[in-house]
Amino acid sequence: MKVLVAVKRVVDYNVRIRVKSDGTGVDKDNVVMSMNPFDENSLEEAMQMKEADVASEVIAVSIGDEKSEDTLRSAFAMGADRAILIKTDVELEPLAIAKLLAKVVEQESPQVAILGKQAIDDDSNQTGQMLSAMLGWSQGTFASNAEHVDGAINLTRETDAGLETIKITLPAVITTDLRLNTPRLPKLPAIMKAKKKPIETHEADSFGIDLAPRLEVVSVAAPAERAAGIIVANAAELVEKLKEAEAL
């Protein structure tokens, strides 16, 4: 069966985020970009499915500008069989992304779509759930373990109340947590080969979908700097300081 994996190009998690001087968004000029960490777990899960003969083909899909090709090259280096770029220069919201992914699913007919539970740039945590609803597929979100048994998946989910194990039937949408696996590090030969592999490209506007945003970003501001702490000599002084701060 085919497995579709969505991968997003984001500011690398090691980079200190800078807000633009005019407050219109995050400054992405001259910063390191990489694959969204949760999407790396999704791709690793798909590769493990292929190595276990559960999946026959892994297709990586990215939605963004032409620089997103770098993310798809990374997916090739990790082992993806094919790559599809839905090209757009517009920052899309989760609803528009889910609609585009639904169109790709209709064209490719995979039985499983795997997405990171959220992207670290907007932390929306919406696309996977929306995609499941649009397709009418089973969904398993926040996956920290997955066992493929007789055409179904026993999925362990991470919830606020603890771990929950559910059984979902195929076709299904899965969103992954960081604890699902440890993504592999591509080897140099695979990285070199990935540079030459073809990427299927489509313009986002060609799908006939309303991509207009539903939200307007009024302004973006960096968090306030933390005030310096105070070193106290003993417990009595600590209590006194807490009283002064009306924390007791």
From TrEMBL:
CDD domains noted in UniProt: ETF_beta (cd01714)
Protein's UniProt keywords contain Cell membrane: no
Cofactor (UniProt): AMP
Key words of the record: Electron transport, Transport
InterPro entries, per database record: ETF_a/b_N, ETF_b, ETF_beta_N, Rossmann-like_a/b/a_fold
Top-rank lineage group of the source organism: Bacteria
Domain Electron transfer flavoprotein alpha/beta-subunit N-terminal: 23-211
GO BP annotations, alphabetical order: carboxylic acid catabolic process
Gene Ontology MF annotations: electron transfer activity
Membrane-spanning parts: none
Role noted for this protein: The electron transfer flavoprotein serves as a specific electron acceptor for other dehydrogenases. It transfers the electrons to the main respiratory chain via ETF-ubiquinone oxidoreductase (ETF dehydrogenase).
Family, as annotated: Belongs to the ETF beta-subunit/FixA family.
Self-association state and partner proteins as the record states: Heterodimer of an alpha and a beta subunit.
UniProt protein name: Electron transfer flavoprotein subunit beta
